[in-house]
Prior knowledge:
Layout: H1 2-8, E1 31-32, E2 43-52, E3 57-67, H2 74-80, H3 92-113, E4 125-139, E5 142-152, E6 159-168, E7 173-174, H4 185-194, E8 204-205, E9 208-209, E10 227-229, E11 233-238, E12 251-256, H5 266-271
Parallel strand pairs: 1-4, 3-4
Antiparallel strand pairs: 2-3, 4-5, 5-6, 6-7, 8-9, 10-11, 11-12
Amino acid sequence: MKNTIAVLALSTLFFVSACKKTENNSTDTVKTDSVQNNTFSVDSVKVNDSLKLSDSLIVKYSSKMLVFPSINDKKLLDSIYFGDKNVQDFSKNGLQALLEKNKNKYFSDVKKDSKDWISDMNFSQEWYSDMGMNLKSRINDYMHIEYTWGSYEGGAHDNYGFSERVFDLKNNKKLELKDITSMPKAKIEAILLKNINKINSGTTDSNGKVNNSEMLLVDVVPATENFYFDEKNLYFHYSPYEIAAFAAGDITIPVSWEELKGTINPEFKKRMNISY
């Protein structure tokens, strides 16, 4: 059962408040480039349904996918929809049909797998699998999409996570860290450790705010491909348990363009108008 839900929750949407962690209120305001507004279009498809398996268990499924009618490059589209290898039709109707198919398979699998243990459940629960794609920014021909996932299958708490991807719409490809900076990863990782507390995760205890550094589970904070950026910084985003305890929630660490001075890719530097 756990494997079933984990596989179906590749890119799911769920924001939870971890134990003693303050809730972060965020908006889906999209930063956009005025020139691209004239040529770029985006839409979305959604599915949201539930299934009552017994008096003790209700299972919910929700999913959201973005639709890009103005993007025609197959390789770029494959990269955008990397979380579901069954995507063949990138149209709105095609993606909506896929979400319905995924939902029906999810409910069918849960119903089948639960036959052996559902009668043993002695208190009411709601399980779910939520998936989402959110367009966060579109600036200078760079498009940032945040993929989020969340699920609950019993136990002490929910599980959730994030995947950040930036796409170069000018060159029709997913942007990699090497396209931004030539700084060795070991040096970037030293900066990440130094900057670990610059954006607090919101976790508190009886004494007040808890620093991210107090909850680390690793000695080295890895410079991963899970990044995005704005005019001031490059940001690395870590899901719960990736570098810290679950109570820390997700952690975002900024690296300023000034800290990457002398290593920034010339084309990227020009397009982002970086002065360092």
